[in-house]
Amino acid sequence: MNANKEWTIAVVGGGGRITGATILELLVRSKIRGGRVRLYSRSRDAVELNLQLADRVCSKDNRLFELTTAESLDEVLQGADIVLYGATAGLEAYEPFQAFGVSQGAHILHVGEAMARLCPDAWFLVLTNPPDISLSAVYRRFKLEKVIGLCNAARFNRKVLAAYLNCEEEELQLDEIGVNHELWFYDIRLQGQSIYQKLRQTLPLDYDLSKVNSAFLDRYPEWKLGFVNNIEILKATGYLSSQVGFMKRFADLPITSQEIGKLMKRPSKSDFLDCLQPDKTTEDILNVTRRCAAEFPIYIAEIIESIILDLRLEHSVQTLNMGMLPAYPQHVMLHITGKVGRNGIERPIIGELPAYIEGVLASRIRQNAMLSEALASQDEDLVRQSILVLPERSTIQQAREIASNRQSVEPYIPLN
To answer: What is the pLDDT of residues 163-197, one digit of tens each?
Structure first.
């Protein structure tokens, strides 16, 4: 892959709002050029909408890369350097694969099998939830190593802390470890110096929603409100966590998911359609599309640029363990901050984790490893066993029925 010559991004689920919004970011950022982006989706109308938005943001004559469509999965994947996956196949089976209760599980294996034939050296980036189980299964079954689960949860913590500390985001370093939507920070540094102990003392006393402000938090106030729960967890455990998903493991937090949800303003299909009105400017359109999962498309575009341009910049991503935590299977996906480049991810040296973080994550990591192995080997017995890794969440009979009937493993396994 040459950054200024030939590269190809294959978008599976090219009619999705997040994938469409990501294409717009790549167009307006003008950092990658000379290659092509191919869109593939089962919904032709959805793809056409994204193409029309692309025309509004950047005309064909002014584009620095080619934007096309494909009529089949094989066509979109042929020779790709990056595969961006945003399809919503749910629990649908794709012969010979069953999803075994993991959303998109069978379809991601189906795509992985095709990638092994058509673009075995490509990066596989998954933005749907949960990305980690299916990508771990793809690695186990097809040995595709360049996999990234996309999740921008850590960015929200960084933005809240920067506003609270009145510092630049770049001055903060968050050392993180976790799985999808369960991320823990084992150290937090400001200008290279640990400030964790100070935060343990000050955050419970003087965190004031009215004083924690930034352009991002004004636009997405749900994250500074949600941080109240993080502080409650910090008070109880001594450690900060990410803000996503913890309602499922901590039962008595002060802010409910309903309260947070009321503040979220994510764009709908009608919002996207409204962007085609003739009076809408590029800024108007981006103001809508960037609301997808609170600027998720910007985060994805930055990672794509880091790969194509071989920038080796630090990004918060989910990737294969590969020795970061030696006591756990190498194929399990972990959420970390690593340097992302064209040929791989430079993983951090983690060392010994605090006892609490090790303890709270241990069962989740083991459970994920077992479930991904079950998906890779299409083993119903392993699905049942993985559910019962946390036996207090499910009866034995429920675990049997979920595994045999291919029902969703959630909430018995808290994947999101």
So the answer is: 999 999 999 999 999 999 999 999 999 999 999 99
- Residue ranges in 58-104 assigned as alpha helix (H): 73-77
Tell me the two tokens of residue 23: 């294409």
What pLDDT sits at residue 1?
57
Short-list 110, 137, 149, 128, CA closest to 379: 137
Q: Return the bridge partners of 97, or none.
A: 94
How many angstroms separate the CA atoms of 73 and 10, rounded? 9
108-146 residue pLDDT tens: 999 999 999 999 999 999 999 999 999 999 999 999 999
Contact 177, 321 (CB under 8 A): no
Kindly tell me if the per-residue pLDDT of 2 is higher than 60: no
pLDDT value at 4 more than 70: no
Q: Exposed, middle or buried by CB within 10 Å (0-12, 13-18, 19+), for 203? A: middle
- Tokens coding 220: 């997405």
Structural contact between residues 89 and 104, judged by C-beta atoms closer than 8 angstroms: yes
**Distance in angstroms (rounded) separating the CA atoms of residues 261 and 226:** 10
DSSP secondary structure of 203-266: HHHH--GGG---HHHHH-THHHHHHHHHHHHHHHHS--B-SSSGGGT-S--SS-HHHHHHH---
Whole-number Å distance between alpha carbons of 262 and 412: 26
Q: For residue 60, give the amino acid letter.
A: K
